[in-house]
Amino acid sequence: MLLRALAGPDIADAVRVGDEVMSTAELLDAATALGQRLSGAHALALHADPSMRTVVAVVAGLLAGVPVVPVPPDAGTTERDHILRDSGADIGIGFDGLLAGVPIEPTVTGSGRLPEPATDATALILYTSGTTGPPKGVLMPHAAIAADLDGLAEAWAWTPEDTLVHGLPLFHVHGLVLGLLGALRVGSRLVHTIRPRPELYAAAGGTLYFGVPTVWSRVVAAPECARALRSARLIVSGSAALPLSVFDGLTELTGSAPVERYGMTESLITLSTRFDGDRDPGSVGLPVSGIQTRLVAETGAVPSDGESLGDLQVRGPTLFDGYLGRPKETAASFTADGWFRTGDVATIDADGRHRIVGRASVDLIKSGGFRIGAGEVEDALLAHPAVREAAVVGMPHADLGQEVVAYVVAEDVGAGPLIDFVAGRLSAHKRPRRIHFLDALPRNAMGKLRKTELTARGE
Length: 459
Ligand code: MCA
Ligand code: AMP
What we know:
Layout: E1 15-17, E2 20-22, H1 24-38, E3 44-47, H2 52-64, E4 68-71, H3 77-87, E5 91-93, E6 122-128, E7 136-141, H4 142-156, E8 163-166, H5 173-186, E9 189-192, H6 198-204, E10 208-211, H7 213-220, H8 223-227, E11 234-237, H9 244-254, E12 259-264, E13 268-272, E14 286-287, E15 292-297, E16 300-301, E17 310-315, H10 327-332, E18 340-348, E19 354-359, E20 364-367, E21 370-373, H11 374-382, E22 387-397, E23 401-410, H12 415-425, E24 434-437, H13 451-456
Parallel strand pairs: 1-9, 3-4, 3-5, 8-9, 8-10, 10-11, 11-12, 23-24
Antiparallel strand pairs: 1-2, 6-7, 12-13, 13-14, 15-16, 15-17, 17-18, 18-19, 20-21, 22-23
Bound molecules: methylmalonyl-coenzyme A and adenosine monophosphate.
Methylmalonyl-coenzyme A (MCA) binds at residues 74, 168-169, 172-175, 196, 212, 214-215, 238-239, 263-265, 368-370, 419-420, 423, 428-429, 431.
């Protein structure tokens, strides 16, 4: 059983989301009652806002063996319609009049238990950006999630004694898989703060905290809040590179160094520094239990000397089952001998510790811990009638890691309306924060866009 804590001792405040609280037994009953009504559905689309309704619905889908498709609550029309269509979801929760909505009442009492889904059944279909085109649906089986959570529990000494605190979105691996399903597998209490704000983290009194680097940067910038985390046992950062200054600030203000870990939607979390191991700044540590890694370069294998760069490839029990309906892209993401190509460039030292140095492609941007495909944002800009050409890049940004910046060739349109146009079609975090208007985009003799020329402008 993936969420085995649901079969364990009843904890009165097992899950708290903002002001809403449910015990283990209440959650199991409500999710079982809903799950019985979901049985036989192809896939469940969920308006995944940070609420107890989302918690109950995710658990219901998992108990019923119905793949859950979390839809970002701020997804604009293009992104949301794509996810709903592409996933083949035939039932939805939280969408006004969009799909056959199932009304849900979290305190309904269930009768009888649902049969256990197969471990190779799809648990989640997670939509994530590639370098081009619309987001792809990552098929994540129950067994992969269970393997990853068990590996992380071991690496972080995560136990039922912990109280996990975070306020991350419930539609990506970090907040949903680690942050919700992790607590429900390990049996720790969960406090979800709705938003990952420093003052909410400080007030929550947890032992284990999750955040993306932008969150930790904001915590360090609010020293009183950071000091309140001194009572925490472990602070974990992931989803993007943690800047050295933030690592140092957290270490000084909270009294212990954060644990940094690395992963992808397709592979779940594959590398982490350990609770009982070295926590060097910039290191994402060792493979999680069951995971193997290797570095590959055009010249062949790369030595583990802590300096030589290579493309990081991983394999193990936490990998996805493929991109929904995209066999060619699935095949292209694996090597002939079955390793997953992460697209990240890394080093490995003699002790097996990994550093993520960057991404092989400039077209995958990480902003605030969100993965954003340049092509998807360019397509949204090009859908505006005034835009003739568009190029999107990620520029270094102190708070967000990278910020989405667009260069466009357009007639008679200002930056503000264009930004709003994109935000109306895609999730708000995919909108360009800045737009530069050019007479022409830089291209080589073959007409190919030269993005490095744009990033080199540094604006
Ligand atoms: C502003 N807003 C707009 C516009 N301008 N909305 C529409 N149109 C506009 N033109 C609104 C936004 O909707 C939002 O509203 C508010 O303004 C603030 O937006 P924004 O500036 O984007 O947010 P932020 O405060 O800068 O967000 C920082 C953040 C966020 C909270 C750290 O980036 C975040 O939650 N990041 C977590 C990402 C994550 O979980 N990644 C994990 C991926 P409102 O306030 O109402 O919402 S999984 C992964 O990476 C792997 C597996 C791993 O390793 O973990
Ligand atoms: P996503 O699929 O949204 O989870 O994004 C995965 C990508 O996030 C990876 O391919 C990395 O580029 C990046 N990432 C995740 N964790 C880290 C980390 N600790 N350090 C650097 N990059 C990271």
